[in-house]
Amino acid sequence: MTVKTFLLPDLGEGLTEAELVRWMVAAGDEVAVDQPIAEVETAKSLVEIPCPFEGVVSTLHGEAGQMMLVDEPFISVNTGGEEAAPASEPEMERAQSYREEELAGTQTPSSEAETEAESESDEDEGSGNVLIGYGTGSAQRKTSRRRKPRGVGAGAALAVQESSEAVRVINPLVRKLARENALDINSVKGSGPQGLILRSDVEAALARPASEQPASLPVVQEPMQAAQASASKPESAAVGGSKDLRTGLPVASSQVLSGVRKTIANAMSTSRREIPEATVWVDVDVTKLLKLRSKIKETEGQAPSVMALISRFAVAGLQRFPELNSRIDVEANGSLRHTLFEGVNLGFAAQTDRGLVVPNVRDAHKLNAQELSAEFARLASVAREGKAAVADLSGSTFTINNYGVFNVDGSAAIINYPEAAILGLGRIIEKPWVVNGQLKVRSICELTLSFDHRVCDGGTAAGFLRYVADAMTDPKRALATL
């Protein structure tokens, strides 16, 4: 019997973990090459994981709701065609790998030794299927390197001397989870080999009411560790999991942000922290635009969406004001690098059950309004289904946010970091409007532009916004020049 263990593949964009949403197979099931076996949720999207082996499922290395690490065992398959048996050997391999990393930091500097080992992946035929940078072909080889253990500081060393045994957890993700939730890692009982503290142990400790938490052991912390622990401790921690200390109100729910919600929160915070933004806005008469769209629909049977028409004008405007289709990066020496792009990858905000995501139409400058409308519909659909690929949700250079669908007039949108600007569309509503000295009822839309003031001044931003607004006001003339 041959049992092969499939490691969770690289999910792209530097993502190191994913939440296991559900298994699509069970132990004992027969699986084929490239058959979807599970759904995992990353910070970017919901991804189906295909199986690179054919055989009988031996072991599922995780449960629904568990955070899985890249390059850790995901599923074991008996490829010998016999009845599946417990995969003790792959499990031991996982424990050994985890053990080496977890115990790395308990070594003192004097006992450290740097070793390197290279291992080659099995040369059996794989499916050849590529999952976001991961190939299962036999030509692919994987090299692993044991890094030099990091020595502990003086304060941590003192804590080790005062304790009969060092805490067996050095995995940064596990420690980070405990630190962010103000949990003393010394109070956690490990369920892994030789008392190894796993992520599941920390999560179980966090789920217990405060009254049931074990007393923590005295540990001497280094100044930086103490500062981090103090900064991460919430001011309004719940008492016994029932009441909020700050307000005195019962706590309905409390959870650490993860997945898409965590990514959104981090992106918004980074944008506000890094980008000195300013906002300009203008009310636009779109009566002629709506009439033009109606005529196109009558003659051709279908018409591009209003957002697609406006997007076409925006893309043309970016070619005239390229500073807004750019990015600023901070280099290692602290200097700022301003990069302008020749093409446009047009992002658009889409509300889904998993949160706000920004799919993007690549090479939008090559598409007409009808093609843009079709791409918006397609990408919005796959995003709401949770099937958008990483490439669909990254790489945009300019974003349009149609918050008018929420029946609001305007908003100073937060720039989609690291882009330089975001264009916002408000709802279209009939208002009294002066036309050639006469008061008439017209269809009005508020247009806003939030921009990075480092890439341009207000004159450039106003010029772009005015160009788009004028095109919306007189669309026939604008389309004739595109």
UniProtKB/TrEMBL annotation:
It is an enzyme of class 2 (transferase). InterPro entries: 2-oxoacid_DH_actylTfrase, 2-oxoacid_DH_E2_comp, Biotin_lipoyl, CAT-like_dom_sf, E3-bd_dom_sf, PSBD, Single_hybrid_motif. Residues 3-78 form the Lipoyl-binding domain. Residues 91-102 have a biased composition (Basic and acidic residues). One of its GO terms (molecular function) is lipoic acid binding. Its cofactor is (R)-lipoate. GO terms for cellular component: cytoplasm. Its EC number is 2.3.1.-. Gene3D superfamilies: 2.40.50.100, Chloramphenicol acetyltransferase-like domain, E3-binding domain. This is Dihydrolipoamide acetyltransferase component of pyruvate dehydrogenase complex. It comes from Glutamicibacter mishrai.
